Amino acid sequence: MPSKVESDIRTEITQGLAAAWPVCLGYVPLGLAFGVLAQKAGLHPLQIGFMSLLVFAGSAQFIAISMLSSGAAITSIIFTTLMVNLRHLLMSSALSVYLTRAKRIVLPLFAYGITDESFAVNLSKFKYSNWNIKRALVVNHASNISWIASTVAGGYSGQFIPAKAFGIDYALISMFICLLIFQLRGRKYIITAIIAGASAVILSVTVPGNSYIILASILAATLGVVLRKWIKKV
Question: Which string of b and e fits 184-211 if b means at least 16 CB within 10 Å?
């Protein structure tokens, strides 16, 4: 008969995997698409695997591969992906309020696994259920394993798939559309999303490079907070 500790660990893993499987399942086609694109850009499957392990950020990896294919300088790629990944500071800040009792040695391991998808799952669980960092870690790293395996598999299969076949280059955009739809839970979220989209379009015309993404996000988030406070007063 398993001890109470073993039973608790099994429960944590089971519940974490139950929350993680939609993310893992969603990462499979996305990871395969990235692996194919990376292979077309000249990366070996082993390099693709190391990139997924070290970076573990789908949007940044897609952008980096796109820029690499277009012959962009390394410094430009690093700066652009850094700017895009600055949103992780916001996501980490939002989750940190639920991790005040977590051991500091565990926090870097947790921070490494934060992505848009795992953030959305864990934030919802922390808000509306009896969630803890152990289950959140399972979500993060089950997703990590799924992503790495899928990108490597895509790298190996890329040699058999023509470039831009099956709408592969649209995979990342479709993922973010799905994430957006799941977050639209009320008027204020819809208005904030509209502000973000409109701001991004306007700023993309006036601001050079990809920094307009960060600026639009900051503007929309700020106006969203103002809107929420105004709604509470009304």
Answer: eeeebeeebbebbeebbeebbeeeeebb
Last residue of a domain, one of 141, 168, 195: 168
Verify that 115 and 193 share a domain, yes or no.
no
Are residues 221 and 116 both part of a single domain?
A: no
Report the C-alpha gap between 60 and 162 in whole angstroms.
23
Co-location of 142 and 218 in the same domain: no
Q: pLDDT by residue (tens digit) across 11-36?
A: 888 999 999 998 999 898 888 888 98
Choosing from 168, 200, 221, the residue where a domain stops is 168
Cα 22 from Cα 24, distance rounded (Å):
5
pTM beyond 0.90, yes or no: no
Flag whether 77 is in a domain.
Answer: yes
> Measured between alpha carbons, how far is 138 from 18 in angstroms, rounded to an integer?
10
pLDDT digit string, tens, across residues 76-99: 788 878 877 888 888 888 899 999
**How far, CA to CA in Å, does 196 sit from each of 179, 222, 223?**
14, 10, 10
How many Cα atoms within 13 Å fall on the side-chain side of residue 83? 19
